[in-house]
Amino acid sequence: MASKTQYKVVLLGEGCVGKTSLVMRYVSNTFNEKHITTIQALFVPKRLNLDGQSMTMNIWVSYLFSLFVVPFSLPFSTK
């Protein structure tokens, strides 16, 4: 019996550059010309069978800036 392996793939980047379109083309071979910008995050599983081994790629797509916003007025201590 083949074991089931899972991988997490994360695509991060600027908005409106095609991350979601790339993933949807890979997962379902579709392209939406009227796609609206992904808000927050998108999760899409892709199941594969490679050399008799079943695996799942759990693909996450997110806008990079929304994940790494850091306020500029951080309190620093010099002690």
Describe, in short, the structure shown:
The protein has 79 residues and is of the alpha+beta class. It contains 2 helices and 3 strands.
Strand order of the largest sheet: 1-3-2
Helix percent band: 10-25%
Q: What sort of overall outline do the alpha carbons produce when their principal axes are compared?
A: globular
Helix and strand run: EHEEH
Count of helical stretches: 2
Mean pLDDT across residues: 82
How much strand?
Answer: 35-45%
Radius of gyration, rounded?
A: 18 Å
| CA distance, first residue to last residue | 60 Å
Structural class by helix and strand composition: alpha+beta
Assembly state of the chains shown = single chain
Number of strands: 3
Largest sheet properties: 3 strands, mixed
Low-confidence stretches: none
